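Work Package 4 report. The design task specified in the project plan requires that, given a folded chain encoded as structure tokens, an amino acid be chosen for each position. We show below one input record used in the internal validation round.
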């Protein structure tokens, strides 16, 4: 169980990092998929 939770946290942090990178590269334009994901990680 704890291994699964650790894996989930790992995947979530990876998604968070990639979403931030994509939104920064896109200039934080509204309408981007990463822009919609961003509020989930605030």
């Amino acid at each position: 169980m704890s291994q699964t939770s650790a894996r989930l946290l790992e995947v979530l942090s990876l998604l968070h990092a990639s979403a931030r990178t994509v939104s920064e590269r896109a200039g934080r334009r509204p309408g981007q998929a990463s822009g919609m994901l961003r509020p989930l990680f605030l």
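The two ends are 26 Å apart (CA to CA). Validation will be extended to a larger panel in the next phase.
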